[in-house]
Amino acid sequence: MGTKRKYLDIYEEIARGIRNEQFQPHVLLPSEHELTSMYETSRETIRKALNLLSEHGYIQKIQGKGSVVLETGRFDFPVSGLVSFKELAEQTGSTSETHVHSLTLSTLPPALQHVLEVQETEQVWEVKRQRKMDGENIVLDIDYLLERWVPGLTEDICADSIYNYVENKLKLVISFARKEITIEKPTEEDKQLLDLYPDSSIAVVRNYVYLDNAELFQYTESRHRSDKFRFIDFARRHR
């Protein structure tokens, strides 16, 4: 096989082995030296194949150790819809658990006042929740909700579903949201509260959520383990 094609063939063979669980999740792949011998090729060709595996989410390279096989099952997270974590877990048939790390009611610093379009005396809930799915902490949600729209918030409500409380108890209509998605380095808080690999990145979804009267009532920073989610949308070309 030609050199240009060989690294692709190696990539496809290893990727197939990962999908078929010939290579188990969380286990190191054979070393570059071992793969060079196995495939009778150069180290440069092996590195190209490994880089491609990393780019496609099959492995995580760890300096000084090697390449760890990642779980290939990712959760599809719709970009265009408003889906709660509880609803996502139910749709995927996954076991889920929410731990409320903190719940406070206070005024906000100027930067967040601007984000939520509130006065400096406005009372706002800050909720931090660890989201566990199938036994792993994979999402850290940081929510800010205006107390005048969402009174009486408790840890039990936050551990269950804030949207269920807003829609069914408070009888408010959640209408639409503006979303921003960025890939960022994990913060110290991410490292503390999420189950991360070394050198992992975080997919951060910032939601600005509005009621049917076009009032902004919630701002959320949802910090996802990037190897566990695939963000999807449906697009139609208009002519």
What is the gist of this entry?
This protein is an alpha+beta fold. The protein has helices spanning 3-19, 32-39, 43-55, 85-92, 110-116, 155-160, 162-169, 188-193; strands at residues 59-62, 66-69, 75-78, 96-106, 124-133, 136-146, 174-184, 202-211, 216-225, 229-232.
Question: Mind explaining what this structure looks like?
Answer:
The chain has 239 residues and is an alpha+beta fold. The protein contains eight helices and ten strands. Helix content is 31%, strand content 33%. A hairpin with a 3-residue loop joins β1 (59-62) and β2. The longest helix is centred in the first third of the chain and has 17 residues, at 3-19. Pfam families: GntR (PF00392), UTRA (PF07702). This is Trehalose operon repressor. Keywords: DNA-binding, Repressor, Transcription, Transcription regulation. One of its GO terms (biological process) is negative regulation of DNA-templated transcription.
Name the beta content range.
25-35%
End-to-end span in angstroms? Answer: 44 Å
Low-confidence runs (pLDDT<50, min 5 residues)?
none
Biggest β-sheet strands, sense, barrel: 6 strands, antiparallel
The helix tally amounts to 8
CATH architecture name of the largest domain: 3-Layer(aba) Sandwich
Give the topology string: H per helix, E per strand: HHHEEEHEHEEHHEHEEE
